[in-house]
Here is the input.
Amino acid sequence: MSRASKLTLAGSTIIAGGIVVFVHYAQQAEKAAMHAGVIRDIEQQRVKMERLADFEMQRALEQEYRKVQKVSDEEGSVARPGQRR
Here is the structure.
């Protein structure tokens, strides 16, 4: 083989190897980013469920307090049971 053909073969082999390494790295980075998105979504769902549970607890407390206490609306009159402010 001539010197030019050896250099061409070596160069194309190095370039092909570099492309394979780059594609592998890109796939790993994309996989990590997708996994991070899933983790973030799970955390958002957990926070949403906690907030919903807190809201339901506050609603139950409000109903309990409305049974025991008189609550007046913005106009100063007494609100009827079951009536929202």
In short: The chain has one helix and no strands.
